[in-house]
Design brief:
Layout: E1 10-11, H1 17-24, E2 29-33, H2 39-47, H3 56-69, E3 74-80, E4 89-91, H4 96-113, H5 116-137, H6 143-155, H7 159-172, H8 179-191, H9 195-204, H10 214-225, H11 230-243, H12 249-261, H13 265-277, H14 284-296, H15 300-312, H16 319-331, H17 335-347, H18 354-365, H19 371-384, H20 392-403, H21 407-417, H22 427-439, H23 443-456, H24 469-481, H25 485-496, H26 503-515, H27 519-532, H28 538-550, H29 554-566, H30 573-585, H31 589-601, H32 608-620, H33 624-636, H34 643-652, H35 656-668, H36 675-687, H37 691-703, H38 710-722, H39 726-736, H40 743-752
Antiparallel strand pairs: 1-3, 2-3, 3-4
Helix pairs in contact: 1-4, 2-6, 3-4, 6-7, 6-8, 7-8, 8-9, 8-10, 9-10, 10-11, 10-12, 12-13, 12-14, 14-15, 14-16, 15-16, 16-17, 16-18, 17-18, 18-19, 18-20, 20-21, 20-22, 21-22, 22-23, 22-24, 24-25, 24-26, 25-26, 26-27, 26-28, 28-29, 28-30, 29-30, 30-31, 31-32, 31-33, 32-33, 34-35, 34-36, ...
Length: 754
């Protein structure tokens, strides 16, 4: 609801162009107009003017002047104050000092936050007030107010609103349109790159009762030439002459601008000559336009002729003329001539601008031999506090200096980059410097530059490209080789966020962590590589395994060794041995046995002494089946162990059962075992009271044609009889006497003994 406070009236203040827009178009203020014929056109006319900077004193002077001129008008301001403690509207009146403070602050905020979206919303609010002012105040719009609102909408590219007001609203209200209104709309369509609509509006002017003059012709020429419609512009020019409308200087300037924009220089030359024939004297704009056309066409000889003609005609070339010539020379590869024009420009006291350096710097920065001159030009820019429009010149200059070997100069340019306003250092510039500094072995400077890059966090921004491998790999490798792998990993993890999965960098980090005695961190990197499918390096695995072994962590070393083989790398025999020895010494015999199994499967036949130690330990610990499985694997891979040695070791340790199983395995596989070893096993079995197992082995030996000790056999026969196994004793006696059945029957008899 509205406040019950009475409305306070103030004289209408026609605000100056630089201050009115933030205040009058703000959605927090509502303007109530009393009927006044002069108020609305003046407001809209002020709204259509471009913003200009102004001081508080100028604002105050303008306000006093307008108060004296328009005391008959009044305005009511209602300001809505929303806060945690107030939820109502409060009407109040500003004093003069408060007006100045508020308007200055509004202008400052508008300067900082004047974006197109904000402007569009405020102009939409202005349209609403334009349409609603008649119903709320009784005011009636006239051609002046319509002209101003159409101009405002056309400049804001709100062409449909402008078209509806011009073609629908004005005829309904019987307000006659003017050529200026249509020219503004045509220019708007040209800026929006819609030339067909501009031509349609232009052709409808006669039927709408508007006489076409130079004003509308100039507007349509500019609209169609923005889109390169050169042929259409020529036909329209001929129609203009036929219609009796004589071209003026602005017409030829517009046409020449369009022809040069499309680099149709022959056409431009004909119209330039026609212009002189009609007695229209070219001005400085005309010459600069032709000059720009020849420069764009990279025909600098013709541009020089125009430049000389301009001087002869009494026109002193200005900064724009020199900027055009410099850019033309540089684009044509004539940098020396561009430098000559630059020096001449300074001698004549002409002001250097951003465009001057934007034209000159590309030619200097891209040439390695002119890097020193480019640095001088850059220093001049910094001295004049000019910010280049093309921010890439810093990267290009740094690249040229690095290629020429001037690394100190490149670093100086890099440091100077941050001194320019609105210039953010390109991450690629860091990449070029890092690569060059590492190649030049200036690693300390490279590390300082990397610290700066990591501190700024520039790489994390998605709008910046990723560094090249040639830039970050040498840096990471140096850090990893010199004990600073932690910083290298922090650097590379930022690159990983940008999608970098570089094999060289990953392996450098693994080697660095391994050398620094941090195998856990190296293992984490290795896990990331495996998850991302990045190919690994065998040397990195070797360092990782050795790092775990140095920390007396053989189990982790064995895990790393397994991962190494899973990735398709073949460990060396020495690496296998190191892991097996570490596991064996740590009491992890079965784990060492698994490593031994992997080694044998990979075809590595060295380290047989370690293999026998592991087999002995397995037998001694009672892991007979596992030991026999390993022996069987060795036999299958043509790597037969020394079974005699194993049997003797078991017999010396009184491991009768283990020796029995090993002998039976050897007999089944037809292993080469000496008969003395068999006799040794039989003695151990007999001593241990295992008569039947000894009888079985003896039968198998004889069935294979082996020779045994007769005294030992007699002892076994006596033991069998004493135990009541007379049948087995009889069979054994007949076998020893040479009356035994066939070999197959003998094996069956021996098995039946159990």
């Amino acid at each position: 609801m509205r406040s019950s406070h009475p409305r306070h009236h103030l004289p209408l203040i026609a605000l100056p162009p630089q201050t009115h827009l933030p205040f009058l178009l703000s959605s927090q203020f509502i303007l109530y107009w009393k009927p006044n014929k002069n108020a609305m056109p003046h407001l809209l006319r002020e709204l259509s003017q471009p913003l200009k900077a102004s001081s508080a004193t100028e604002i105050s002077t303008s306000i006093d002047h307008e108060q004296d001129r328009l005391r008959s008008s009044t305005v009511i301001m209602e300001c809505r104050l929303d806060s945690l403690f107030m939820h109502r509207r409060t009407c109040f009146t500003y004093r003069k000092e408060d007006w100045i403070t508020f308007l200055a602050r509004s202008f400052r905020d508008m300067t900082v936050h004047g974006k197109k979206s904000i402007m569009r919303r405020r102009i939409e609010w202005c349209i609403t007030r334009f349409r609603g002012v008649e119903s709320t105040t009784g005011f009636r719009h006239d051609p002046d107010t319509y002209r101003e609102i159409i101009l405002l909408l056309a400049r804001a590219s709100m062409l449909n609103h402008a078209r509806c007001i011009l073609l629908d609203d004005m005829p309904d209200r019987l307000v006659p349109p003017s050529e200026d209104m249509f020219a503004s709309l045509i220019e708007g369509y040209g800026c929006a790159r819609i030339p067909q609509e501009a031509v349609k509006i232009f052709r409808r002017l006669p039927e709408l009762g508007v006489t076409r003059t130079v004003r509308s012709y100039d507007a349509v020429f500019k609209a169609i030439l923005r889109s390169g419609r050169v042929a259409m512009a020529r036909r329209l020019f001929n129609a203009m002459i036929a219609e009796g409308v004589l071209p003026v200087l602005s017409t030829y300037n517009t046409l020449l601008w369009g022809f040069c924009l499309s680099i149709k220089m022959e056409t431009a030359q004909r119209f330039f000559a026609d212009m002189k024939e009609r007695g229209i004297a070219p001005d400085l704009v005309t010459y600069n336009t032709i000059l720009n056309g020849w420069a764009r066409a990279k025909k600098m000889d013709d541009a020089e002729k125009v430049f000389a003609e301009m001087t002869a005609a009494g026109f002193a070339p200005n900064s724009i003329s020199y900027n055009i010539m410099i850019k033309g020379y540089v684009c044509s590869g004539r940098v020396d001539d561009g430098l000559r024009m630059f020096s001449e420009m300074g001698e004549k006291g002409l002001r250097f601008s951003e465009k001057t350096f934007a034209a000159l710097m590309p030619g200097l920065c891209d040439d390695v031999g002119r890097a020193a001159e480019a640095r001088k030009a850059l220093n001049e820019m910094a001295k004049l506090q000019l910010t280049p429009s093309d921010k890439s010149i810093f990267l290009r200059l740094v690249t040229s200096l690095c290629e020429s070997g001037d690394l100190e100069g490149a670093l100086e340019v890099h440091r100077k980059t941050s001194q320019f306003n609105h210039v953010v250092v390109d991450p690629m510039q860091y990449g070029v410097l890092l690569e060059s500094l590492c190649k030049g072995e200036k690693h300390e400077s490279a590390i300082a530059l990397l610290d700066e890059l990591l501190e700024k966090g520039t790489m994390q921004s998605p709008q910046y490209p990723t560094l090249e491998p040639s830039a970050y790999n040498p840096m990471i490798e140096y850090l990893c080789d010199h004990g600073d792998t932690k910083k290298a990993e922090a650097f590379f993890r930022q690159l990983m966020k940008k999608g970098v999965d570089d094999k060289v960098a990953f392996n450098s980090l693994i080697r660095g962590h391994a050398k620094e005695g941090m195998p856990e961190a190296a293992s984490e990197i290795l896990t990331i590589m495996t998850r991302h499918g990045v190919p690994t390096d065998a040397d990195s695995y070797v360092l990782l395994v050795e790092s775990f072994l140095k920390k007396s962590e053989p189990a982790d070393a064995r895990t790393a060794l397994d991962s190494m083989m899973e990735q398709g790398h073949l460990p060396s025999a020495s690496l296998f041995r190191s892991v097996m020895v570490a596991l064996f010494d740590d009491g992890r015999v079965q784990t060492a046995s698994r490593v031994m199994k992997s080694m044998i499967e990979k075809g590595v036949k060295e380290n047989m002494d370690m293999v026998h130690k592991i087999l002995d330990a397995l037998f001694m610990r009672g892991h007979v089946e596992e030991a026999l499985g390993r022996i069987n694997l060795m036999i299958m891979n043509d790597c037969t162990p020394d079974i005699d040695h194993l049997l003797i070791t078991l017999c010396d340790s009184d491991k009768a059962t283990e020796a029995q199983k090993l002998v039976e395995f050897a007999l089944e596989r037809d292993c080469d075992v000496s008969f003395s070893s068999y006799d040794r096993v039989l003695d151990v079995l007999y001593t241990a009271g295992k008569t039947l197992p000894a009888y079985s082995i003896l039968c198998k030996i004889k069935a294979k044609g082996g020779v045994v000790d007769k005294k030992g056999c007699d002892a076994i026969i006596k033991s069998l009889i004493a135990e009541g196994n007379t049948k087995q004793a009889d069979i054994l006696s007949r076998i020893l006497a040479g009356k035994a059945p066939s070999r197959k029957s003998g094996e069956r008899v021996a098995m039946d003994a159990f």
